[in-house]
Structure formats: structure tokens, C-alpha cells
Amino acid sequence: QFPFGRRLPCDIYWHGVSFHDSNIFSGQVNKFPGMTETVRKITLSRAMRTMRDLFPLEYNFYPRSWILPEELPLFVAEVRTMKDSNPSWKPTFIVKPDGGCQGDGIYLIKDPSDIRLTGSIQSRPAVVQEYICKPLLVDKLKFDIRLYVLLKSLEPLEIYIAKDGLSRFCTEPYQEPTLKNLHQVFMHLTNYSLNIHSGNFVHSASANTGSKRTFSSILCRLSSRGADVKKLWSDIISLVIKTIIALTPELKVYYQSDIPAGKPGPTCFQILGFDILLMKDLKPVLLEVNANPSMRIEHEQELSPGVFENVPSPVDEKVKVAVIRDTLRLMDPQKKKRKD
């Protein structure tokens, strides 16, 4: 580790959070300039909406979204219109702060008037989305999938998707949202960093039990129930590719301003975390894209009040070690030299 930067040239630079080094003139950096901004909830929602306007059938995998506070009147008006045309429609919406992560500040509402219009929404913009009320359940629990995607280059556009990911489970049996259970985060929100605080959280040594499992173990279960797992994978691949295509124009602008063509500079690659929810009919829905997915392969365990130790997590290790190993193999600068 080089906390103050390294001035001797390297083949691969591995930055912690974001691209922040203008003194690198060659080699490869594991972050794209501007990626953190590009995948924020508001920017992502805008990009997806632009694409949906152009290609409505191709971009129907992202929940309908509105940006707060600027689109609050539009949100209220659209919901009212939809309710008038279909009185039996009883929607639920999820409000997510733009810069929030790990479930911070997320809440569910039944009516636009429930949005917390305190000072915070003015200073802290958010996205409000239609909540998926009929997710696929496993063991009566809601879960999401964290898939790891390597964006190897922008020109040409090269994308790799890891064959396995993590399935992160809620810790209370799922029920459709009602006014009574809207606040039960352990039932509705799949964020690991929230559910870890639930008394029902199970750290498992096996890939197919507990509150965090491998995605491949879920696919095995679905396949044994007769589900078309091949089609599911093809839908997920399509979702990933279309999402990255939607983000590419903005990423290219950042890239060209930080690393202008014709000037010496590094090339970039990045591992992204795609959070995907499966609906009851196995249709994948994109929840969000994470520019900085956690690569930790252990969790903290409290031995006594205030005393923690790190315990290996076999599920994280199985998935994440493979992701980093294969990324380094794909980016290996020696490989090209050997080929030549």
C-alpha cells in the first residue's frame, strides 16, 4: 500500500474508492473517472429514463422513478392519474436518498403525501420508485442478488459478468406492504448492512443456507423446481449490457476530460456491483449499481461489548476471490506481451 502515492510506474494501480490520480501516465487503473457520480441513484434514474423514452420495451427492467424534490409535483400528479384510472391499484413506493448507501435513509410510503418533506429532502435529494410488491421468495424470505461486472474498457466496449454472485436475504418472512408493516426494514430491505443487526441474521459456513448465500445455490434450487435458468441468465446479461450502454455517454465525457485522447495516461477498468431483484415470474429488476462494491471476505463478530474480531466468511470468499483473480487475469498486461 502507498498511502501517499507511488511515483514509479506500475502495471496495475488499485485505488480504494475512486479515480483520483493525475500523475499516472501508463498502466491500468481499477477505476473510471466519474464512475461514482454516474451510478448515483439520480444520475442512474435519469439515464434509464432517457433510454426508456427511446426504447420502451428494451428498458422495462428498471422501476418507474421520480427525482425529489424537483419532480414532486409530477410524482403526485402521475400517481393521482394512475389511481383515478385504476381505483383498485394500491401502490407502495420506496424513497432512497441520492448519495445514501447501505440502506441509510431508505423508507417506504403508500401515498405521495407521506414523503418526509423536512429540510432534509431539500438539502438531500432523493429518488422515489415504485416498490416491487411481488418478489421471488426463497424460504419465505425476500432477497436480492449482488452480481459483479467488470467493465474492461469503454472503447471498444468490453463487459464481463462473474458467473457467481451473492444472494442477500431479509431476516423476517416477507409480507406484502401494508400500513402496519411498512416500517419493518428486516422484511422489506435486503441490505446486508441493515440485516446484520437483526437477531435472525445467520452467518453460514455453507453456500446454500443462511442470510448470505451464493447466487449459484439459488439457481440450483430454481432449476430443481423446473425454472428456466438459462433464460434467467440471458435476461440478466441483457439487463447488465443495456444498463452499461445507458451509462456509457456520461462515462466517456468524464474519461475524455481526465484522460484526453493522444495524451499519455492510463487505461481504466472497474468492477461494478449490480443489485438485482427477481420478481415472482423470474423477471430481473435492476435496483442499483454500486461503483465501489465491498470486497471484504470476513465479517465482524462481537466477542464482548465493544470487542470485535474478524471472522472469515466462506460465502464471500468463494465469490469475491474468484472475481478479483479473474479480473487480474483479464487485465494481465504480460498476457499481451506473451501473445506477441
Question: Which terms summarize this structure?
Answer:
single chain; 340 residues; alpha+beta; D-amino Acid Aminotransferase, Chain A, domain 1; Dna Ligase, domain 1; 2 domains; seven-stranded antiparallel β-sheet; four-stranded antiparallel β-sheet; 10 helices; 23% strand; globular
Describe the structure.
Helix content is 32%, strand content 23%. It is built from 10 helices and 16 strands. The chain has helices spanning 35-38, 41-54, 72-85, 119-123, 185-188, 192-195, 215-224, 229-258, 314-331, 333-339, and strands at residues 12-13, 28-29, 65-68, 93-97, 107-109, 126-130, 137-138, 141-153, 158-161, 166-169, 212-214, 267-268, 270-278, 284-290, 298-304, 307-312. The longest helix is centred in the C-terminal third of the chain and has 30 residues, at 229-258. The chain is globular. The model has no long low-confidence stretch (mean pLDDT 90). One of its GO terms (biological process) is microtubule cytoskeleton organization. One of its GO terms (molecular function) is tubulin binding.
Poorly predicted sequence stretches spanning 5 or more consecutive residues = none
Q: What percentage of amino acids are in beta strands?
A: 15-25%
Characterize the largest beta sheet: strand count, sense, and whether it forms a barrel: 7 strands, antiparallel
User: Residue share in helices?
Assistant: 25-40%
Q: What's the number of domains?
A: 2
CATH structural class of the largest domain = Alpha Beta
The residue-averaged pLDDT reads: 90
Q: Can you count the beta strands?
A: 16
Structural class: alpha+beta
H-E order: EEHHEHEEHEEEEEHHEHHEEEEEHH
Helical element count?
Answer: 10
